[in-house]
Each structure stands twice: as C-alpha cells, then as structure tokens.
Amino acid sequence: MPKITFIDVAGASRDVDAPAGWTVMEAAVKNDIPGIEAECGGACACATCHVYVDDAWLDKVGQAEDMETDMLDFASDLRPSSRLSCQIKITSELDGLVVHTPERQG
Ligand code: FES
C-alpha cells in the first residue's frame, strides 16, 4: 500500500498508509494529521486542505487544474508547490510521497 509522509512546520514527520484511490486529504484526515482541516470534505471548495508538495515529487504529482488553482487563491502563504490535498489522488506511483503542511490554513 502506498505510504505518504506529512512533515509539519516544526519538521515533525508522520508516515501514513494511503490506499490507492484515496486522496492525500483523506489519508491526512483519517490519520489525524494536524494542520489539515478539510472543511468542505474534499469538494475543492474551502482551501483548508492546503499542502506543499515536496520538491522531489512535483513532477510526479503534476499540476493543479483550473478549479483547484482558483480555490488555492484563498489559501495563505501560497507557493509554487502549493496544492489542495483533496485534489491529489493517490496511486501506486505516489508511494513515498512527501508533503509539507502549512503553518496555518485559510
Ligand atoms: Fe476543501 Fe480540499 S477539502 S478544498
């Protein structure tokens, strides 16, 4: 099963099992990862599931689509690696994915 590593602003790292077909947001919420609020439940309508994809994974994860890019404007401290974690679908290709959680959501 794919594993995802979440790293917080203090550098604390947590590995979780993330079945293919879940989103990165679901893997975070189901494992009580701090810093992912996901208020809209994955509908790309809240921007409180904001994460930074680790540089090493940017190509594999790919780019946000238009709807996600529009919603990302509501996230604070936007960076080129910013994504909404509810819009990243987990596949076996993403086994070992590393994402960083932001200091705060919204
Ligand atoms: Fe609301 Fe991702 S959970 S945009």
Describe what this molecule looks like in 3D:
- The structure is a single chain.
- By secondary structure, the chain is an alpha+beta fold.
- The protein has one domain: Roll (Ubiquitin-like (UB roll)).
- The chain is built from 3 helices and 5 strands; from the N terminus they run ββαβααββ.
- The chain has helices at residues 24-30, 58-61, 66-72; strands at 3-7, 13-17, 50-53, 82-84, 97-100.
- Strands 2-1-5-3-4 form a 5-stranded mixed β-sheet.
- β1 and β2 form a beta hairpin.
- The longest helix has 7 residues, at 24-30.
- The protein binds FE2/S2 (inorganic) cluster (FES).
- FE2/S2 (inorganic) cluster is lined by residues 25, 38-40, 42-49, 71, 84, 86.
Write a compact overview of the structure shown.
This protein is an alpha+beta fold and 106 residues long. It is built from three helices and five strands; from the N terminus they run ββαβααββ.
Helix-strand layout with pairing:
Layout: E1 3-7, E2 13-17, H1 24-30, E3 50-53, H2 58-61, H3 66-72, E4 82-84, E5 97-100
Parallel strand pairs: 1-5
Antiparallel strand pairs: 1-2, 3-4, 3-5
Residues 25, 38-40, 42-49, 71, 84, 86 line the site of FE2/S2 (inorganic) cluster.
